[in-house]
Each structure stands twice: as C-alpha cells, then as structure tokens.
Design a protein that fits this description.
Helix content: over 70%
Distance between the termini: 16 Å
Order of helices and strands: HHHH
Largest sheet: none
Number of helices: 4
Number of domains: 1
Strand content: under 5%
Radius of gyration: 16 Å
Number of strands: 0
Structural class: mainly alpha
Length: 82
C-alpha cells in the first residue's frame, strides 16, 4: 500500500475547497439575507416532502447547513467515496 495517486489528492483537495466555499457563501448569505435563504431552503424541502412533517421546524436545521459540523460531515462522507 503505497501513497495515493496524485489525481486522488487533487480530487480530495477540490472537494475540500468546494465544500469550504459552499459553507462560507451559505453563512454569508444567511447573515445578509436570512429570509431569502429560508424561502429557498423551504422550497427545496417541499420537493422532498420534509416540510410536510408536523414536527418540522426550519429554525432547528437551516443553520446546520452552514456550520462547521456540516463541513466535516460532508468531507467525511465524500472521503469514503474517493
């Protein structure tokens, strides 16, 4: 088991940068335009049906999309695919 190929490292670096940019941009948009972000995410939730859940509360989970926990979770999941 040698070192991973350079292409694999490049792919992992790209995923890291992509997720970091998404989290940072999402955090900035959430601060500047909280109502618009809420509407967009709720509209996406209507397509999947999660907003039909009676126990659904957007205040509990919308901020998690732009947290460091989300960042590390996505990297961990994508890391298993690489």
């Amino acid at each position: 088991m040698g070192l991973p190929q350079p292409g694999l490292w490049l792919k992992r670096l790209w995923v890291l940068l992509e997720v970091a940019v998404h989290v940072v941009v999402g955090k900035v948009l959430l601060i500047l335009f909280p109502d618009r972000v809420k509407r967009n995410i709720l509209a996406m939730g209507e397509k999947t049906g999660m907003t039909r859940n009676p126990h659904f509360s957007h205040d509990n989970w919308i901020p998690t999309f732009f947290s460091t926990q989300y960042f590390w979770f996505v990297l961990k999941v994508i890391g298993h695919w690489c």
